Amino acid sequence: MSTSSTAAVAPPDRAVADFEAIYRANVQALTAFFARRCGEPQVVADLTSETFVQAIGSLASFDPRRGGARAWLFGIARHVYARHCERAAHGGHTLAALAGHRELEEDEIEDLAARIDDQRAGRELLERLTQLPELERAALELVDLDGLAPREAAAALNISRGALRVRLFRARTRLRKAEEPS
Predict the structure, then answer these.
(1) Phi, psi (deg, nearest 5) at residue 10
(2) From CA 64, how far away is CA 114, in angstroms rounded?
(3) Separation CA 175–CA 179 (nearest Å)
(4) What is the set of domains in the chain, with CATH numbers?
(5) Which of 153, 164, 160 is nearest to 77 (CA)?
(6) Residue 96 scores a pLDDT above 60
(7) Which member of 1, 59, 68, 111 has the lowest number of beta carbons within 10 Å of its beta carbon?
(8) Could you tell me the end-to-end alpha-carbon distance of the chain, in angstroms, rounded to an integer?
(9) Which of 114, 144, 122, 146 is closest to 41 using CA atoms?
């Protein structure tokens, strides 16, 4: 192996420390993301774990010039959740759930159940957002519910910042009009 190819790769200890920092900074936000969408603590834990497993597997392809780690993780989480929905719709969820996921401890279940309950208002908003086009809904979710900066949300959705601003404006306008008394 040439020295030029090894210079671009972080030493293993450094990469582990970097990923641990990314994990610690984002695990709560990703857990909340899934808690707004799922009512079962085991599913929330599994989807959160799956997101980080995929992130570890694709860490070498992470490019901070395209967006921060938070945006990158939320992009992965959106794909993980979409696959979860596809499996559930096609009956593959049961087999996937039995494929090696560990059982949660009672205190972990209680903690996740509390987080799911804390996200009730977010779930109600997500229900109202179902009337919006997909990209408008996703932009609003990432910025207003998940707390991503607009540039991070744009990176997670793989669209320009200008396109994100337009989507946010349209989504907020549609929501306001829907809530106005007729």
Answers:
(1) -70, 145
(2) 33
(3) 6
(4) 11-118 (1.10.1740), 120-182 (1.10.10.10)
(5) 153
(6) no
(7) 1
(8) 70
(9) 114
Percentage of the chain beyond pLDDT 90 is 33
Place of tokens 């929905």: 85
Taking the C-alpha atoms of residue 128 and residue 158, their distance in angstroms, rounded to an integer, is 24
Average pLDDT of every residue of the chain: 81
**Token representation of residue 36:** 């707004």
Would you give the DSSP letter of residue 8? T
Residue labelled with tokens 């945006």: 71
Query: How confident is the model over 48-60, as a mean pLDDT?
Result: 91
Distance CA 41, CA 34 (A): 10
Specify the pTM. Answer: 0.66
Q: Mean per-residue pLDDT for 96-103? A: 56
Where do we find the tokens 């582990």?
A: 16
The Cα-based distances of 58 to 19, 54, 122, 176 in angstroms read 11, 6, 29, 39
Rounded to whole angstroms, how far apart are CA atoms 142 and 140? 6
Render pLDDT for 8-36 as a digit per residue (tens, 0 to 9): 455 567 777 888 899 999 999 999 899 88
pLDDT of residue 81: 93
Tokens of 101: 């996921």
